[in-house]
Amino acid sequence: MSHLKKRFIFFTATLIVFFVGVSFVIPALSSRSSEIYEKIKTLNQIISIVNENYVEPVDWDEVLDGAFHGMLEKLDPHSSYIPKKQLEAISEQFHGKFEGIGIEFDILGGYITVISPIVGSPSDRAGLQPGDQIIEIEYESAYKITKEEVFEKLRGPKGSSVNITVSRIADKKPFEVEIIRDEIPIYSVTSSFMLDHETGYIQLRRFSSTTSQEVSDALNQLRGEGMTQLIFDLRTNSGGYLEQAVDVTDNFFVSSDTIVYTEGRRSGSRKVYRASSRKGDEDYALVVLIDRWSASASEIVAGAIQDLDRGLIVGETSFGKGLVQQQWILNDDSALRVTIGRYYTPSGRLIQRPYGDGTHEYYRELADENREARLDSLITDRPRYKTKSGREVYGGGGITPDVFVALENRSPEVRKLLRNEKRITFNWGTEIASDIRSDWLSESAFIEGYHVSEDQLSSFFDYAIQEGVSPINNEALEKDIPYLKVVLKAEIAGAIWGRGAYFQVLVSGDSQVMEARKLFGRARAFLTINSG
Fold first, then answer.
1. How far apart are the first and last CA of the chain?
2. Residue 451: pLDDT band with limits 50, 70, 90
């Protein structure tokens, strides 16, 4: 049987099973069954004509995948078809682990460049450092290797070995390392530390199968270090597992209040998720940071904390993804995700924003620089709800922050320096780190005492020009010089002590975090509400 026939039979069978299944459950659709079958026959005819007559050979995998995507896009922006290979990558991210050597890397100058070894991984144990370049894998050149080839060659079963040759700035000659592969965790909590003697900070990037435990561990660690107030950073967190969102939220409550509920179109489909009343704490002030890319599970957490008056929500209005998808694994190990319900916050707010103008407009609106001003101008038309204490909050899609704090708009000049494929800030920081590493005995001493000098800044500009960045316009860059110095210091810290130190320095120059730290007086008022 030809590949096209197999692919089309799979596509047609999927449609028939789907529509017949729906018709069986909902008899009202039965009258439309003949229309659906006629459309499938028409599709069969179109494929046959194209296959026999199109001017060039057709990549039917790509064409039929496009047909799947197009069909589901007509339903809503989040129902989707996921090809097998893409599904494997997504599943790995949300299962929270893979097997390999454990490095964060990029291809710089044609070689695999270690950005950071993952803490506790085989690469970390083998002594790999940020800036190391892997020039050979199993004694074969790794020059101009692709990222896909890196995954193929460096990942492998736990217990297997791989030999690599490493070039390091501080060493004259490359050296060989044998690394035994192991299970590598993919952390959801990417950063957790004390900003000062009382303020904890946790940055959460996704909701995977290990997230709740990671957050609980981070909270316990920070409480042990004296934390009395917390910034919980959900910016750019696009979501993940619903149950993990509920469990994470549970860390902040001692009541058994509703955290979120879902409703579908079938009667009796409402499902309520509550706090356990046994797990959490309510004795520290809480500020939650969100932005326009905080979505789904992030919005469940932020919405519950706002509706139940547990903490202050700060930043931008969130994404507005409140549709519940159920996943079906199909015959070819690809997946179908179909929306079966909607998320609602405890006060009854629908998290999902409107999508009636189509998928393109749905995402274009999100990227609009004036989005927040436009939403604010429409606020009188948005539905209003009450929090547990009677405060007014707004529906209409997404979570509207209690305090709006915009992300600082960086100049095109600094963006040119920070966002380029050569990663010049990383390379420069790695070189400086090799020169000053022995001058700093501890991470904390470096964070407190090190400052990028004017001479070092000039050397960075010279390096940037040498690497092909167009001439530096100092006037255009002037307002961003303090931030640029923070980024350069972060790169040096990361090269010496790893990604934890990198993030700790970077957060110190984050304008939204700095504003959030000023708002703990308002956040602390919620403790009185909940205790009284």
1. 72
2. very high
Question: Do residues 263 and 504 make contact, with C-beta atoms less than 8 angstroms apart?
Answer: no
SS3 24: helix
Residue 466 scores a pLDDT above 60: yes
Average pLDDT over residues 346-367: 91
* Cross-strand bridge partners of residue 184: 98
The angle that helices 424-436 and 481-497 make with each other, rounded to 10 degrees, is: 60
Q: Tell me the angle at which helices 481-497 and 454-466 cross, rounded to the nearest 10 degrees.
A: 80
Nearest in space to 144 (alpha carbons), one of 176, 113, 107: 107
* 5 — pLDDT class (breaks 50, 70, 90): low
Q: How far apart are CA 90 and CA 78, in angstroms?
A: 15
In one letter, which amino acid is 532? G
Q: What is the band of 96 on the pLDDT scale with cuts at 50, 70, 90?
A: confident
CA 421 vs. chain centroid, Å, equals 20
Place of tokens 């969102």: 245
Contact yes or no for 238/293 (Cβ under 8 A): yes
* Contact by Cβ (8 Å): 131, 169: yes
Active site residues: 296, 307, 321
User: Largest Cα–Cα distance of the chain, in whole Å?
Assistant: 79
Please state, in angstroms and rounded to a whole number, the distance separating the CA atoms of residues 302 and 158: 38
Q: Which residues have CB under 8 Å from 95's CB, separation 6+?
A: 186, 208, 209
Question: In the prediction, which pLDDT does 10 show?
Answer: 52
- Rounded to whole angstroms, the Cα distance separating 182 from 192 reads 24
Q: Which two tokens stand for residue 81?
A: 């078809």
User: What does the pLDDT average to over 204-225?
Assistant: 96
What distance in Å separates the CA atoms of residue 108 and residue 333, rounded to the nearest whole number?
A: 34
Q: Looking at residue 399, what DSSP letter applies?
A: -
Q: What are the DSSP calls for 207-256, one per residue?
A: B-TTHHHHHHHHHHHHHHTT-SEEEEE-TT---B-HHHHHHHHHTT-SS-
Calpha distance 130→495 (Å, rounded): 5
Distance CA 349, CA 86 (A): 33
Which of 279, 301, 275, 276 lies closest to 288 in space, CA to CA? 301
- pLDDT for residue 494: 94
Average pLDDT over residues 418-445: 92
Q: Are 142 and 103 in contact (CB under 8 A)?
A: no
Phi, then psi, of 510 in degrees rounded to 5: -85, 115
Residues 6+ apart with CB under 8 A from 366: 292, 293, 319
Nearest-angstrom CA–CA distance, 433 and 492: 5
Q: What is the pTM of this model?
A: 0.87
- pLDDT at site 276: 87
Alpha-carbon distances of 430 from 122, 398, 425, rounded to whole Å: 21, 40, 8
